[in-house]
Design goal:
- The structure is a single chain.
- The chain is an alpha+beta fold.
- The chain is built from 4 helices and 6 strands, in the order H-E-E-H-E-E-E-E-H-H.
- A 4-stranded antiparallel sheet has the order 2-1-3-4. A two-stranded antiparallel sheet has the order 5-6.
Length: about 180
């Protein structure tokens, strides 16, 4: 072999080594990036409590009205990390019924108190005028007269069916009758 041929072979060999080294470096960088992504994902785990609501600034995820009265606020946290706030327990129930999200947690703000409860510890009192007219307010499950989550779902479903049927007059008549009973 000539000196020229030896130099060409050496250059090809060096290029091959360089290409292999670049490929290995790319794999190492990709592994490091994947590791950091996994760490970041772990660090951003799902919340384990209620997330703050900015009163009068955030909108209800169902009806789009401003969430202004904490006495009726509710929050849904989904397994994909979304945090959705509601201005009325009935709005949250409607959202869950209509969209079937994969639920991580549900919280309700206790009526006229500064405390939140998770769904499993919450009962509902009815005949309390709520922002969207579902007339449910959260209370402790063991409160005398409190209705269950299942009964609240049934109540909201019935009201939504009446609303869909255009039976608005009946809802207003019921409220008028309930108001006169309370007075």
């Amino acid at each position: 072999m000539t000196l020229h041929a030896d130099m060409l072979i050496a250059r090809k060999s060096n290029r091959s080594r360089s290409m292999i080294e670049i490929a290995i470096a790319a794999v190492v960088v990709a592994a490091i990036v994947a590791g950091f992504a996994a760490l970041i994902h772990h660090a951003q785990s799902l919340p384990n409590s209620v997330q703050p609501v900015i009163w009068d600034k955030e909108s209800c995820a169902e009806c789009k009205m401003a969430i202004g009265d904490p006495s009726f606020a509710a929050q849904l946290q989904t397994k994909d990390g979304r945090v959705l706030d509601f201005d009325d327990p009935g709005c949250l129930i409607t959202y869950v019924n209509d969209r079937s999200p994969i639920i991580h947690a549900i919280y309700f703000h206790l009526y006229k108190q500064s405390e939140w409860l998770d769904k499993d510890r919450t009962g509902f009192i009815s005949r309390v005028r709520s922002p969207m007219g579902f007339d449910l307010a959260a209370t402790r499950k063991e409160t005398p007269g409190a209705i269950s989550w299942e009964r609240a779902i049934e109540s909201v479903r019935n009201q939504n069916e009446r609303r869909s049927a255009g039976d608005r007059r009946r809802i207003d008549d019921d409220r008028t009758r309930e108001k006169s009973i309370e007075e």
